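Holo model, 71H. Inputs:
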Amino acid sequence: GSSSTEKFYRIPKGKGPHSVGCTDLMTENAVEGSFLRLYYPSCNATDNEEAPWIPDKEYYQGLSDFLNMYRVVGERLFQYYVGSVTCPAKSNAAFKLGEKYPLLIFSHGLGAFRTIYSAICIEMASQGFVVAAVEHRDESASATYYCKKKSLSEPREESTSSLEKEWIYYRKLKTGEEERCLRHKQVQQRAQECIKALNLILKINSGEEVTNVLNSNFDWNSLKDSVDTSRIAVMGHSFGGATVIESLSKEIRFRCGIALDAWMLPVGDDIYQNSVQQPLLFINSEKFQWADNILKMKKLSSNDTNKKMITIKGSVHQSFPDFTFVSGGLIGRFFKLKGEIDPNEAIDISNHASLAFLQKHLSLKKDFDQWDSLVDGIGPNVIPGTNIDLPPAEPE
Ligand SMILES: CCN(CC)CCN(C[C@]12C[C@](c3ccc(C(F)(F)F)cc3)(C1)C2)C(=O)Cn1c(SCc2ccc(F)cc2)nc(=O)c2c1C=CC2
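Output:
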């Protein structure tokens, strides 16, 4: 129904000129394959349904593991509270032809997965981006899966739409295990998965046939010659922010990056030998950051005018993922899913600053430069740099 509460707890629609579709793509019957949710400008498909926000119950089980809850409790809680939430994008809607769109690769955070940053991805798609939100198989996601090869002995009737899904759950840190070591290995795999996703989209753009092991009726051939292969960026939240930095240093075709509340621990020390040449925007929340984390960002940005940092006042770490929109006031504040700032205001600041930064560094011909002041930390609820007090700089 359209009761007021439902509208209140909804993931915001894209505000740009395009309707948005979304569809899932998985290649290879192996953990080494690519798995991504594509958000894209679509024709105004009225008869398509909105996509399910969290498509399998195993994601609830993975979230319970991640949040140290009993699965039997977590699964029912999530099913009850968010089981019917859809994301405001039309499932498998026809791709909007006629324009070459810049490409954005999105990397999720620790314990997250590909579908829960839909407010950001849908806004970017509505503004004319093709967005590939990858699902990482480094065991940092709450849950993910790959489709096992159909064994020859199995009945081969076409009707068997049920895929044999092999689930991989969140890997907790083992006692005595060095977190830096595990996270550094994971961030390298995550960067490779972003580069693999980039190559996959470019392959599709060139008109090459790609096998989607998921049963979807989306016509991937409609993406032929629709991606602007010279305008590609990478974006991510928290662990995904570290993945942005690693991906930029490994892949020059990523022309710039946006790190949302980056978690710098996984970033190896070698990165500070100026191996990130591309422009990079750090968009930080007020409450998540701490001195050591900020100092690593500053070390990376050492007097490089192409590296910018802004902080959104009143925001928290969870102001970027979708839970900030679907949780009620009480739960939202208890779990720190909402800050003092209204969640919609916070995501608008983040998205507008991102669009302005992307226009500047991908030389887009849009009107996103209207938000240039935000990238300089000028505007309501935003400050340049950080609110964190840093120790006085070491004398040179
Ligand atoms: C439990 C102890 N600890 C395990 C390591 C988790 C501690 N934790 C804070 C949490 C995530 C929290 C959360 C989410 C979601 C609900 C829900 F109820 F709304 F679903 C509740 C409560 C619990 C806030 C984080 O890890 C924060 N964080 C995240 S959170 C990304 C995420 C994951 C799942 C989501 F559903 C939404 C967002 N991504 C990162 O890359 C990094 C960090 C920290 C450093 C690097």
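The CA atoms of residues 330 and 338 lie 10 Å apart. The chain has a mean pLDDT of 94.
Archived with the compound record.
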